[in-house]
Amino acid sequence: MDYEIVIGLEVHCQLLTETKIFCGCSTNFGNPPNENTCPVCTGMPGALPVLNRKVVDFAVRAGLATNCDITQSSIFARKNYFYPDLPKGYQISQFELPVCVGGYLDIEVEGEQKRIGITRIHMEEDAGKLVHPEHEYGVSFVDYNRACVPLIEIVSEPDMRGAAEAVAYLKAMRNIMVYLEVCDGNMEEGSFRCDANISLRRWGAPEFGTRAELKNMNSFRNVQRAIEYEVERQRDILDGGGSVVQETRLWNVDRGISISMRGKEDAHDYRYFPDPDLLPIVIEDAWIDEVRENLPELPVARHQRFVADYGIPVVDADVLTADHNVADYFEAVVKLYAQPKAIANWIMVELMKFLNDDKISITKCPVTPQGLAELLGLIEDGTISGKIGKQVFAQMYSSADNDPRQIVENQGLAQMSDTGELISMVDEVLAASPDKVKEYQGGKTKMLGFFVGQIMKKSKGQANPQMVNELIKERIG
Amino acid sequence: MELYNDTLENLSQRLAKGEISALELTQSVLKRIAEVDGKIGSYITVDTEGALAQATAADIRLKSGENVTPLTGIPLGLKDLISTAGLQTTCASKMLVGYRPEYDATVVRRLREAGAVITGKLNMDEFAMGSSTENSALKKTCNPWNTGRVPGGSSGGSTAAVAAATAIATLGSDTGGSIRQPASFCGVVGMKPTYGRVSRYGLIAFASSLDQIGPVALTVADAALLLGVIAGHDERDSTSVNIPGANYYDNLKKDIKGLKIGVSQEYFSAGLDPEVETLVRKACGQLADVGALINEDVSLPHTDYAVAAYYLLATAEASSNLARYDGVKYGFRSDDADGLVDMYRKTRAQGFGDEVKRRIMLGTYALSSGYYDAYYRKAQQVRTLITRDFDKVFGDCDVIVAPVCPTPAFAFGEKIADPLAMYLSDILTIPVNLAGLPAISVPCGFTKSGLPVGLQIIAKPFAEETLLRVAWQYEQLAGWSGRRPELEKGAV
Ligand SMILES: [Zn+2]
């Protein structure tokens, strides 16, 4: 039988604030266990949370970028459950009156536009992390560095109708959050993660089917695979006359299957209630306006502008706007050197290759936009050839020396454009191969390449090939 | 007179003048603790070494004359749910025996900065849940006026210590009457400030929206001096309010002529002990004699619903606040547990006392899915109505005068077996917490059998100055404050 697939996503973004949501501890990743902690984030008796206003800024930014309404007076609630990584026995989150509600995101799937509703965005604190030492059975440790790190959860409407739509939504959402500098978007490290609610229903059925919740998908590819697996699993059940059980399932990457984690009967009663330690968050219009004014250009707008203003191909704009740091870099070079297409090529081919090899972000690129602009200028004015340009770029990259002119000068890499010197070199080569000169003059014009090659070799690649060509033709043409 | 018997107000002047030293005074109080606390049982922890060191430091400060505050060199005790860095803080629970906080509560930091001497930590009902201190898992505290009677609770250790002169003054905490009721039972002054006036940072929470730290002292002036140091905005507590306080002490003596005092009939209803009623009504008469205008025609119509609303809200918050005692990081952990869930179950089953467990269960139920609207949300609505009752009365009156507790101190065991009877003993103090108002208990006489009775004065939010002024004026007229029980005679 044929079914309609219904998917809703809950996306968690770890926010890029410098300090935690309810205390002044650092959010720095990778510090020794429990170094970034204090009485507040370890839930010591008597300690109280104080809201980091930056977190509200970020949540409002995310809400405005996804067309949400901002709640004027929103409240924090306690979500109560026991787990060793949760030091207070409750997570401070939002329940009734979340910070943003009722937005949407437009996505494109197979050339078609689709609007996905966003139910709500709420702020909450992350939990710590359990550490199970390999050789000590029955002993576990808890690292609270991550406890109290701010998150936003973005809950979509059940508007997606297949894995491809879900992945497109997720990619668009990730790109926006990265552009907003709200989240680093790292799925493997879990700073951008998602849970999926999936159900099937017969075409035309008015009500949704029973849904299963999928967790633990740490890449776009895994989201795609896990949803496809789940759809097939539910289809098999329904086709066999069975009914889907409401449950939470964990995706197992290695085995490519999902496994039931807990059923409805084990579902927690979180006993949400307003946190009496925190006051309602009053967000006045002035605050919202301030955030709105500082909102960066979003990916879709920037892409359109790149194509329209710089005249670069859509595929180039795709690559350059996929990471706003790359787009920033591109524009910085364009400002200094008005050849967008040439710059795009250099960034996408040369620069990205080096960055990918070293696995570093463009923000850490040793070649500055100024350095690159100058290098491209040297190629354009004929000082060096494109080939030498690549060599100079490699040197600039490895030494972080952003003065290409100096490099060319010091190493004598400039093209030979001195006619006198070139003429004597051409004459020498022609004199050394009288037979070949004859062949050329007899109509074998491809011998021209041979002569040019000889001269380039003699000049160690520094002869200006254009001029060499002309000189040869002048001499024996 | 022994130094420990004097008031904070006098001692502070004597210290500043160099007539006595902080060390002498502290030694006097420590000696007193050694002599009588065996009989009263106020202290869970006496910090002799720390107190002597702080006294020595205070003397240096007093000698230099710099940075001297009214609390410099004054020995104070703290209810054992106020966090003290490095000094055991138990909440009178088996759960926290041996727990040494890594930080000072804001009030403790302020006391230390003022140069106060901290003598130790005082007994209470476990996690402040109770009205007699009988729920302490660690020790029994007796009423210094009659050791067969309870001191009240939950700050019973704090009030008994002041009455027995084992501290010059103390801090307690008041969630539903936990400072005022034991102050009434022990014949001392106990004040609950406006919610938000004193930082809760470091106060181990029972019910966060109701808890408030306050002073317990021999006289109103002493309480005013202590409040002056602990009150004030704290950026570590989001619910602390940034409203500057007046100089509570300096304004005490302004007269109260023409001040409007409301007396609500709902606070004199059935169940009120006739002796208590007589003493409180007499106090109203005395206030009228000095020019206050008594209005007996005010009404707080939702008073009857306060206890029910309180026991839903307070327990709901407590069920969440006490979730952190899970045996993972500090405090008690059951040693016969098999696996994580069993560790939680056994740790909490063995670590908490009956009343704490009863309230955690009540609160968990009130917040459960399907019951939230009927219990928690409804109780919040009642809370709003009670607050409006007070707002309305305060449209016409400056303060409200009432009994603190329907009865004087009761005997050990009298109510402990009947939780409901115990809960109802808070009926006259709870509405104040629900509305977040400041209120005080001032001694207003003794029953025929020699038990002290307190007069409750309630003021508008952040009107502590008026509250203390009325209390001080009454105290001057009545002269009940400062009396001491005769402990030596009956010493065991
Ligand atoms: Zn922290």
Quick structural summary:
The complex is a heterodimer of chains A (477) and B (492). With 477 residues, chain A is α+β, with helices and mostly antiparallel strands.
Which labels suit this protein?
heterodimer, A: 477 residues, alpha+beta, Arc Repressor Mutant, subunit A, 3 domains, nine-stranded mixed β-sheet, three-stranded antiparallel β-sheet, 15 helices, 40% helix, 20% strand, B: 492 residues, alpha/beta, Amidase signature (AS) enzymes, eleven-stranded mixed β-sheet, 11 strands, 38% helix, globular, binds zinc ion
The number of distinct helices of chain A, counting runs of at least 4 residues, comes to 15
Q: In which order are the strands of the major sheet of chain A placed?
A: 2-6-7-10-1-11-12-13-14
Number of H- or I-type helical stretches of chain B:
15
Please provide the count of β strands of chain B.
11
Which sequence of strands runs across the widest sheet of chain B? 1-3-2-4-6-5-10-11-9-7-8
Mean residue pLDDT of chain B: 96
The first-to-last residue Cα distance of chain A is: 78 Å
- Domain count of chain A: the total is 3
Per CATH, the class of the domain at 3-256 and 463-478 in chain B reads Alpha Beta
